Amino acid sequence: DIQMTQSPSTLSASVGDRVTITCRASQSIGRWLAWYQQRPGKAPKVLISEASTLEIGVPSRFSATGSGTDFTLTISSLQPDDFATYYCQQYSHYVTFGPGTRVDVK
Amino acid sequence: QVQLVESGGRVVQPGTSLRLSCVASGFSFSSFSMEWVRQAPGKGLERVAFISFEGSTRYYADSVEGRFTISRDNSKNTVYLDLNSVRSDDTAVYYCVDRFIRGQGTRVTVSS
Asked: pLDDT tens digits, residue range B13-72?
């Protein structure tokens, strides 16, 4: 099985901050990586697929890069709606998820 | 537009059974493998079961092996998850996945 790790597990930030979350796969997954946002009590929502492709309707302050085993998600200027938990997910070989990064108010 | 709509979740007693369903639309369902993942309260996302596009290959997480069964009906664009001998640690929201979580999930609560 491909294992996914994320760092940090929790990130405290303020509105307007630039935020970066990293994700690492235990083996190469090419660009078969998605990022999700999950708000409390809601289903995860896909933000980005194929490592860097923004889903329709996702604000441009979200961006992502990476390939192989190392990936990053960046929020250029954190907004109130962005305080949530973020998961990475590989879909190269079955699906597996990272443990999540909670972004909370500093 | 790809849609996955899960249903069948409810409150059940330990040791009983239930069937979850997921109806797919907006893509060629019979060409894609499908999976079920779950999220226990306050926890992360865990893969539960996989089925190949034609149904001949199935894999299960160790935690559900021998108790859960995944199946599909390509004529109905539907994938199923049969949960047997459920335990309290099966309490979770269950999502079906083609490559991504797209639906709202269905909640299973195991409680006496």
From this structure: 999 999 999 999 999 999 999 999 999 999 999 999 999 999 999 999 999 999 999 999
- CB contact under 8 Å between B37 and A97, yes or no, is yes
Contact A64, A73 (CB under 8 A): yes
Nearest to A36 by CA among A80, A95, A77: A95
Cβ separation A95–B44 shorter than 8 A:
no
Mutation target for B interface from A38, A47, A97: give the one with most B CBs within 10 A: A97
Rounded distance between C-alpha atoms, residue A48 and residue A46, angstroms: 6
- Strand, coil or helix: B29: helix
Position B110 scores a pLDDT of: 98
B45's tokens? 């996302």
* Cβ partners under 8 Å of residue A8, min gap 6: A21, A101
